[in-house]
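Amino Acid Chain and Its Fold in Token Form
===========================================
What this section holds: a protein sequence and its matching fold, both as plain text.
Structure line: whole-number tokens from a learned vocabulary of local backbone shapes, matched to residues.
Purpose: to set a sequence beside its fold so the mapping can be learned.
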Amino acid sequence: MNPYSKLTDYMRTQSKAVAGYDMVRAVVTRVSPIAVQIGEVEIGDNIYCNPALTLGLNPAAISTEETELKACLNSFYSAFKLSVGDTVLVQQVRDAGQGNFFFIVCKAVEV
């Protein structure tokens, strides 16, 4: 057997043990409190995300006569706020003694 093949196999095994899990695609099933579905499993505990994703703002309620500003704010906010059915990228992280944590990295849309 090629000694480099052995080294490559060893490196793959070690990287999985240290790096943990791959980033996965999930679907938002609930916004408050937040929950996501990864495959057939719904996860609602130990989830972390950027607080801007869950602000719950309503740009349409802003009192201003600047219709272009209001449209811009509405468009901008709807681009990153989380809603049920949205696709997100999730990174699962192990923490020895504390279990698994799930970090919503970002909202993703098909282009």
